[in-house]
Amino acid sequence: MVHAGSERVGATRRALVHRAYAATARGVSAFGPLVTALIDARNGFAAVVQEVFGDGAAWIWRLGGELLPEATWVLDRWHLTDARRRALRAALPDKAVRAPWNARVETRLEVGDVPGAVAVLAEVAALAPHPALIEFAGYVTTLAPAIPNYAERRAAGQRIGSGGIEKGVDVVVNRRLKGRRGMRWWRDRIEGVVALRVALLNHTWDQLVLPALAAHQ
Fold this sequence. Notes:
With 217 residues, the chain is mainly alpha-helical.
């Protein structure tokens, strides 16, 4: 999903503006040109502020770096918190014992202090060695360029999560392709349905779909 910022829609909520979607079942190589066209159509390559949000998947940062090399990377805050919870829960099953360590790691991650968080994880590992701690330390170290000072972004009214993208997956894919008993899809059929969903949600049905149907008839 590509958007052009957000606007306040209540006391605490903000809504994304000028949202548009790209989707494909044919992999990153096919997805890249779709995203490029979407950004270009909104003059996004000329935007002063460019940001790429992701859930931690490596392909997102690779594609974002190729398309928007000057953009700021932001790891979705919920995914970071979830990864931290799972790692510490694995190493410290007792909730009471785990709580203060959770708080210490979270305090550092909230301000983008990755080295500080890794140092606390090392302290935990000294008390309760576990592969999950090593994995999480590697996770945050690898994604350090995408872990900003979340507290500062919150205070400035800037986004810290990729919830809009998660919602995009719901409206583009899940509502049409999932949840019905016995439903099965061929990849090519998925591609066609997703293309129609994107045209509908991007308000390009009349420009793209109707002419194609007329030509086919």
